[in-house]
Amino acid sequence: MSETSEELIMVGVDVAKDKLDIAFANEPALTIKNEAAAFKKLIKHRAVESLCFVMEATGGYEKPLVSFLLTEDIKVAVVNAKRVRDFANAMGAYAKNDRIDANMIRYYAETAYPKGRLQWRESRSEVEQRIEALVKRRHQVVDQKVIEQLHQANA
User: Fold this and answer.
1) Are residues 53 and 34 in the same domain?
2) N or C terminus: which one in the chain shows less Cβ crowding within 10 Å?
3) Across 2-143, where does the E strand assignment appear?
4) Domains identified in the chain, total number
5) Cα–Cα dist 39/22, whole Å
């Protein structure tokens, strides 16, 4: 991850399994499918060099968009969902739907990280991505092994 002092235009993205709600500043939020063809259409007629797409980690549903944006050399940041929710609560934004969430993520990034001082993801090679997936899977297997050992000890 790296940091910059250049001005970035934050784009809030609320990620779900099948769709993305995307909030650009001064535009109504839009909804697209969570698939590569829709990602390409989204950026087709936009000046993307000054954009930073900001989203919460969603257990992996964000990965296709993050990978696509990094491949296109577009800045992307994945932020802590609890911080965004705490920010929204502090702002008195208790209403919740996907479009409101996308706008709140954008507003959080603009407010918490003025002048684009947000740390964004850097592109990783396929090998690095595969190693990350293997390490994650190893942690899952080790956790499952501990649970099984406790079951056997209590049986």
Assistant:
1) yes
2) C
3) 9-15, 19-23, 30-33, 51-56, 75-79
4) 2
5) 11
